[in-house]
Amino acid sequence: MSPRVEAGTTLPALALPPVSRTTLALFAGASGDTNPIHVDLDVARSAGLDDVFAHGMLSMAYLGRLLTGWVPGSRLRSWRVRFTAITPVLSSPRCEGVVTAVDDGVATVELSVRLEDGTTTLRGTALVALP
Amino acid sequence: MAVDLARALARPIEPVVALVERGRLRAFARAIGDTDPVHSDVEAARAAGHPDVLAPPTFLFSLELETDPPLGWLTDLGVDLRGVLHGEQSFTYHRDVHAGDTIECRRRVSNAYAKSPTRDFLVKHTDFLRGGELVAEAEAVVIVTAP
Questions:
Q1: In 3D, which of B39, B33, B35 has the Cα closest to residue B56?
Q2: B10-20 core/surface letters (b: 16 or more CB in 10 A; e: else)
Q3: Given this model, what pLDDT does residue A35 score?
């Protein structure tokens, strides 16, 4: 982490490779979110979708990586995200964060995840304790 | 209405008690492409000042799913999982959680409301306790759509 954190400080962005079906299967098993709509094409089609889509919590986990790549995880006080669009299989999320305020040693970080077509899939805010 | 809101608010949810396992943390880290060894290697975690492998920030959500069926709190309400969307998720941390910890997840539907005849919102609050101490909290906003 850079020595001085202030409003406007940007976190190093995290660009993910395309979300593969293998990633969705591994995440379903490891996370315990076994909703078949994320891994079973037949179930996705029965719900009227063309294909499976990624777990929202996979994208939030990527945002977690953005944060813990910036500061040790123990400094994360709280955070909240809103899922604004689904992440289609094979799309490539990009996680970004920018500090919008620093008060009493706690940074407010605005978070977003976007896909290559510009769709924003997550927006959120984190409170991070500074050293 | 996609779900019985009064029933969702009144119906208790069984708590989940789950052990945080090193292997599970390693598999989780691999699935999300996290190569920070503090989440997968005991020695690296100890070198960073932790007693054991550190759970990543969203892993607590997975502990709640350590029950059968994992989304039983929804399916018990008659919810068709194909119509469920995850609207919002938050975490508040009070203590780090590590491999070897046994965590009790105490859950309740804290709010339930309809936004349209075919879209209901359920807010689930979870307290995560270790030996009776509150270590973290989470809130999930789940959108249930009628077919």
A1: B39
A2: eeebeebebeb
A3: 87
Beta bridge mates, A10: A98
- Residues found in chain B: 147
Q: What gap in Å lies between CA A82 and CA B44, rounded to an integer?
A: 33
pLDDT band at A52 (very low <50, low <70, confident <90, very high): very high
The owner of tokens 């039983």 is: B72
> Closest partner residue to B65 among A33, A64, A77, by Cβ?
A33
In one letter, which amino acid is B102? T
Q: Taking a C-beta distance cutoff of 8 angstroms, is the pair B64, B74 a contact?
A: no
Q: Assess if CATH 3.10.129.10 describes domain B5-145.
A: yes
Q: Which of A66-80, B1-15, B30-44 is predicted least confidently?
A: B1-15
Q: Is the pLDDT of residue B50 over 90?
A: yes
* pLDDT per position as a tens digit, B14-40: 999 999 999 999 999 999 999 999 999
Nearest CA among A105, A112, A95 for reference residue A128: A105
Where are the alpha helices (H) located in A1-127, listed in sequence order?
21-31, 41-46, 56-68
The ranges assigned to domains in chain A are 14-129
CA pair distance B109, B42, nearest whole angstrom:
36
- A14-129 CATH fold: Thiol Ester Dehydrase; Chain A (3.10.129)
Residues of A with CB under 8 A from a CB of B: 16-17, 23, 26-27, 29-37, 43, 46-47, 56-58, 60-62, 64-65, 67-69, 72-74, 76-83
Could you tell me if B134 lies within 8 Å of chain A, comparing CB atoms?
A: no
